[in-house]
Amino acid sequence: MSREIDEVWIEEAVERYRRIESLQAEFDQAVRAVEVSVRSPDGLVEVVVTADGTITDVRFLAPVQQRGNADLARSVRAAVTAAADAAGWAREKLHTETFGAYRRLTEV
Question: Residue 59 contacts by C-beta under 8 Å, 6 or more apart in sequence?
Answer without folding.
Answer: 45, 46, 47, 48
